[in-house]
């Protein structure tokens, strides 16, 4: 017995999961399941066992997996997946969620040892992406994916491919632009120094030479690096919007023209270094603001949740069919753990549908023959056959995406502080510039023009343009470190404005699938064994949970096994008659119990007690009531209200809404918005997709960021759920930091303006002021953000 | 002092060569994945297989 318990605590050599059996064993290595053992065998045969030397237990558990890749031999599907194909070679990239350690990297780059038809394979670790080139005459795409599957790296293939989308994003050559601006900036600085330090009469020849060189360096900076500011300013003017790009473009233009004129007329050295520095810093700011999470997609919709193809039965033959071609009347086969992609009628088989992602209902639902099953449900148990009654795009679930919230442009987003300020800033700036022009022009026109241009140069809102990107990127990396991934920097400001928080229940505040089981009553070891034996024959999720709760038990002979759908199980185990099931089954009448789901047990007609399944709330739910001081809290659940009594701890009774359909959730959010509330929605499933989109800030909560999450503004890892109040406060701090840094940059502008309005701005002053203000802003924002994060205990 | 013209010409030319090299590196995708090579270099070579399969 001791040996047995010792073994029980041991882990699987392949995946590191806890192992309940010593059945699977080769080469003194133990495995948790057949799948893990098979992977090991494949690797051992090919002498690739170094895989296990780099990291302990690098594999992924294979307990639940189905090998179904027939659809990959359909030419229409292949065409959409591959990057390139000629007569011989196919190039393809896959997203493989399991890539997580150096072993993965090593093994995946050894693919040609497993199959010589693979010519080339390269892993991009951060993107979790594998690019391969292979000879498709020797190895089909299906064969390649099966090979990957066999070594434990199943690629995620979906209609809305993450990789394809990232690759297709337009390239703006920002890095190249920064390189050119930096290159010119460095050279111009070098050439400007002699002028600043003063040239002797003997060296005056150089002055001209350096001046023209400076102008020459200015040309690529304006025409290549800085061109984006001109086009953006022009477009905004056409749309009658004054944004920060206008004064920036004006500043760049004035700097360049004045430099060229001064050099040409020999009146001065010009401001070439200020010009290059300005463009360089602006572009760096832009670069910093672009934060991309390669492995996360914020734009997912139902297409990335649904399979690429379904098995369709035609004349008794099963054939894979691309989802897009699925039509009303088709008969499809859906196996264990597969998703039903369209509304359909159940024709054959025992349907036990897990709808947690669609409706929020936590416990799988039993469906009888002839019943309509809505798209998005996941079959658990045996294979079922269904007849499609609506095309994929018009099913109950997917029609949510036809709603106006998805088609209409987002105009409920508030304008950012930067946009708001730069409008006024531009007007004031122009007023001062024209004022100083008019003031001096009456007596001295050249001085007037000098003052006019100097104002535009000095007040060019470089520091202002940089304060937001640098603060936000620092804030984003703080959030990122705490497993909270924001779509872009504007989301931080959005978050600071929130005054209402709406939460979904299943999967958001409860932990998906794992319920706490408790047995009310006393069970002997033998009785536990009896219950385990009874339940181990059933595929019902509650039976499985009971089995895993009771742990590993010895099998006993079973007879007269009978499972009554929706009620329970009766069976003769050994010599005892066991009945396990609902109150209806045991007592003959049903009771409505609130709080938890119960499964009752009786042995030989003697009542033993019941299992209670409590939903487990996420860690940090205790922080939620604290939020209600500053925020209006609501709960929106697709589930029934049997947990209402437990949830009263966290939410006001009138703020809890149960049995909400996706459309109702969305409407409730828009009702709140009509009351001038800024709503943050936390959800996890497809049923929340509409509400997430409608809200001012949609946050998808997930236990694994690589899993499917509905389209949202931010993705929160479930482990950081407890930090939600800190996140909200930190977002407010960040906005405060932006305000302060704006004041600092304004101070610099005022100092510069006092020189500028007199018309006597020396190039040296401008050359010192600009980088100085930039350096101040960058260091202030990063330090202040760091301290704010420390204060909120997020650093 | 006319040598300055020549020297500055040289320095600008060299800087342009470096800029061109950077453009080339960027275009040929050398900067696309800056993380994976750092892991790849730490992996030992093939021949150090576990003793069990040392027939190779």
UniProtKB/TrEMBL annotation, chain A:
Subcellular location: Cell membrane
GO biological process: copper ion homeostasis
InterPro entries recorded: ATPase-cat-bd, ATPase_P-typ_cyto_dom_N, ATPase_P-typ_P_site, ATPase_P-typ_transduc_dom_A_sf, ATPase_P-type_domA, HAD-like_sf, HAD_sf, HMA_dom_sf
One cellular component (GO) term of this entry: plasma membrane
Organism domain of life: Bacteria
SUPFAM superfamilies recorded: Calcium ATPase, transduction domain A, HAD-like, HMA, heavy metal-associated domain
Family assignment from sequence similarity: Belongs to the cation transport ATPase (P-type) (TC 3.A.3) family. Type IB subfamily.
Record has Magnesium as a keyword: yes
Pfam families according to UniProt: ATPase-cat_bd, E1-E2_ATPase, Hydrolase
Species of the source: Mucilaginibacter myungsuensis
Domain P-type ATPase A: start-end pairs: 307-401
Keywords: Cell membrane, Ion transport, Magnesium, Membrane, Metal-binding, Phosphoprotein, Translocase, Transmembrane, Transmembrane helix, Transport
Main location: membrane
Domain Putative metal-binding: start-end pairs: 11-81
GO molecular function, one term: ATP hydrolysis activity
Regions that span the bilayer: 174-197, 209-230, 242-261, 267-288, 425-442, 737-758, 764-789
Membrane topology: Multi-pass membrane protein
Official protein name in the record: Heavy metal translocating P-type ATPase metal-binding domain-containing protein
From TrEMBL, chain B:
One Pfam short name: FixS
Keyword annotations from UniProtKB, A to Z: Membrane, Transmembrane, Transmembrane helix
Keyword Transmembrane: yes
Claim: Transmembrane helix is one of the keywords in the record: yes
Transmembrane region(s): 6-25
InterPro entries: Cyt_oxidase_maturation_cbb3
PANTHER family cross-referenced by the UniProt entry: FIXS PROTEIN
Name by which UniProt lists this protein: Cbb3-type cytochrome oxidase assembly protein CcoS
């Amino acid at each position: 017995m001791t040996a047995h318990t010792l073994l029980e605590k041991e882990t699987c050599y392949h995946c590191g999961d806890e192992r309940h059996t010593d059945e699977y064993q080769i080469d003194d290595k133990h495995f948790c399941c057949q799948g893990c053992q098979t992977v090991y065998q494949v690797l051992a045969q090919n002498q690739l066992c170094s895989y296990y030397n780099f990291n302990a237990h690098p594999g992924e558990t294979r307990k639940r997996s189905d090998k179904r890749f027939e659809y990959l031999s359909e030419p229409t599907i292949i065409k959409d997946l591959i990057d390139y194909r000629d007569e011989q070679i196919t190039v393809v990239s896959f997203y493989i969620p399991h890539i997580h350690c150096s072993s993965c990297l090593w093994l995946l780059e050894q693919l040609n040892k497993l199959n010589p038809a693979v010519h080339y394979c390269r892993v991009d670790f951060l993107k979790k992406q594998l690019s391969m080139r292979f000879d498709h005459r020797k190895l089909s795409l299906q064969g390649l994916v099966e090979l990957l599957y066999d070594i434990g790296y199943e690629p995620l293939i979906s209609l809305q491919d993450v990789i394809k989308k990232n690759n297709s994003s337009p390239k703006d050559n920002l890095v190249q632009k920064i390189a050119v601006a930096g290159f010119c900036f460095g050279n111009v600085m070098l050439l400007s120094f002699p002028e600043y330090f003063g040239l002797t009469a003997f060296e005056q020849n150089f002055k001209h030479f350096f001046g023209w060189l400076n102008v020459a360096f200015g040309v690529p900076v304006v025409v290549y690096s800085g061109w984006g500011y001109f086009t953006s300013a022009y477009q905004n003017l056409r749309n009658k919007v004054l944004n920060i790009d206008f004064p920036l473009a004006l500043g760049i233009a004035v700097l360049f023209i004045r430099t060229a004129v001064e050099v040409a007329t020999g009146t001065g050295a010009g401001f070439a270094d200020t010009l290059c520095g300005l463009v360089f810093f602006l572009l760096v700011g832009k670069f910093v603001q672009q934060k991309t999470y390669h492995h996360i997609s914020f734009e997912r919709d139902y297409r990335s949740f649904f399979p690429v193809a379904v098995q369709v039965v035609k004349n008794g033959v099963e054939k894979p069919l691309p989802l897009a071609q699925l039509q009303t009347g088709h008969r499809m086969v859906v196996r264990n753990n597969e998703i039903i992609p369209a509304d359909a009628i159940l024709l054959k088989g025992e349907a036990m549908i897990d709808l947690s992602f669609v409706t929020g209902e936590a416990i799988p639902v039993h469906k009888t023959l002839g019943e309509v099953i809505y798209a998005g449900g996941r079959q658990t148990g045996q294979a079922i056959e269904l007849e499609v009654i609506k095309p994929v795009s018009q099913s109950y679930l997917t029609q949510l995406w036809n709603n106006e919230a998805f088609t209409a442009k987002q105009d409920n987003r508030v304008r950012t502080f930067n946009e708001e300020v730069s409008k006024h800033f531009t007007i004031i700036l122009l007023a001062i510039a024209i004022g100083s022009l008019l003031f001096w022009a009456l007596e001295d026109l050249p001085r007037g023009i000098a003052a006019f241009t100097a104002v535009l140069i000095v007040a060019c809102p470089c520091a202002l343009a940089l304060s937001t990107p640098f603060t936000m990127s620092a804030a984003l990396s703080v959030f990122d470190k705490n497993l909270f991934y924001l779509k872009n920097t504007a989301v931080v400001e959005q978050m600071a404005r929130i005054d209402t928080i709406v939460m979904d229940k299943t999967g958001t505040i409860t932990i998906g699938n794992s319920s706490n089981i408790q047995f009310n009553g006393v069970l002997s070891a033998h009785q536990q064994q009896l219950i385990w034996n009874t339940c181990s024959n059933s595929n019902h999720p509650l039976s499985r949970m009971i089995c895993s709760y009771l742990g590993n038990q010895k099998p006993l002979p079973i007879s007269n096994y009978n499972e009554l759908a929706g009620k329970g199980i009766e069976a003769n185990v050994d010599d005892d008659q066991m009945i396990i099931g609902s109150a209806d089954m045991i007592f003959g009448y049903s009771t409505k119990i609130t709080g938890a789901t119960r499964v009752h047990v009786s042995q030989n007609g003697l009542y033993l007690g019941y299992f209670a399944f409590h939903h487990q709330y996420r860690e940090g739910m205790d922080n939620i009531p604290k939020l209600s001081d500053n925020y209006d809290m609501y709960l929106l659940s697709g589930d029934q209200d049997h947990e209402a009594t437990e949830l009263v701890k966290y939410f006001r009774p009138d703020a809890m809404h149960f049995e909400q359909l996706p459309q109702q959730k969305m409407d409730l959010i828009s009702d709140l918005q009509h009351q001038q509330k800024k709503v943050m929605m936390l959800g996890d499933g497809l049923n929340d997709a509409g509400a997430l989109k409608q809200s001012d800030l949609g946050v998808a909560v997930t236990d694994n960021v690589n899993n499917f999450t509905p389209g949202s503004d931010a993705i929160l890892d479930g482990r950081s759920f407890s930090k939600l109040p800190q996140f909200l406060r930190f977002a407010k701090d960040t906005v405060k930091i932006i305000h302060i840094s704006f004041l600092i940059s304004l101070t610099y502008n005022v100092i510069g303006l006092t020189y500028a309005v007199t018309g006597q701005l020396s190039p040296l002053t401008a050359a010192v002021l600009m980088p100085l203000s930039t350096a101040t802003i960058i260091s202030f924002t990063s330090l202040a953000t760091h301290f704010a994060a420390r204060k909120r205990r997020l650093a | 002092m006319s040598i300055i013209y020549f020297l500055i010409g040289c320095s600008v030319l060299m800087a342009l060569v470096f800029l061109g090299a950077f453009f080339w590196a960027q275009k040929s995708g050398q900067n696309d994945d800056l993380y994976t090579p750092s892991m790849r270099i730490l992996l030992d070579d093939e021949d150090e297989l576990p003793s069990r399969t040392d027939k190779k």
